[in-house]
Automatic annotation (TrEMBL):
InterPro entries in the record: RHF-like, RHF/RaiA
UniProt superkingdom: Bacteria
NCBIfam families, alphabetized: yfiA
Record Gene3D superfamilies: Ribosome hibernation promotion factor-like (3.30.160.100)
One of the Pfam families matching this protein, by short name: Ribosomal_S30AE
SUPFAM superfamilies: Ribosome binding protein Y (YfiA homologue)
Protein known as: Ribosome-associated translation inhibitor RaiA
Gene of this entry: raiA
Length: 98
């Protein structure tokens, strides 16, 4: 599985990149045919504390799944997004079996 990370409006540090790679590797346990994941980390221009958005696009053969989560930290956004992707992948896998 290939993970592409793009940061919008800020520079991403190595620790965050490692966290994203490590967290998204767990999604592959649920479905081994994942082609790639595109991760867009955005720093929204608002006075709100919850201004860090992680948008993830997961590509599997024949479909793509998009998840967007916003929270106080990028780690939390990525974690919530990865959980949502895991649920989507499990549903997708169940549909494939039918």
């Amino acid at each position: 599985m290939k993970v592409n990370i793009q940061a919008v409006n800020f520079n991403v540090d190595r620790k965050l990149v490692d966290f994203v790679n490590e967290r998204l590797a767990k999604v592959e346990k649920f479905y081994d045919k994942v082609v790639s994941v595109d991760v867009f980390l955005k720093l929204e221009n608002s006075s709100d504390k919850e201004n860090k958005t992680a948008e993830m696009k997961l590509l599997v053969p024949g479909d793509e799944m998009i998840v967007k989560k916003t929270s106080k930290s990028f780690e939390e956004s990525v974690d919530l997004g990865a959980d949502a992707l895991e649920r989507l992948v499990v549903k997708f896998k169940e549909k494939q079996k039918l």
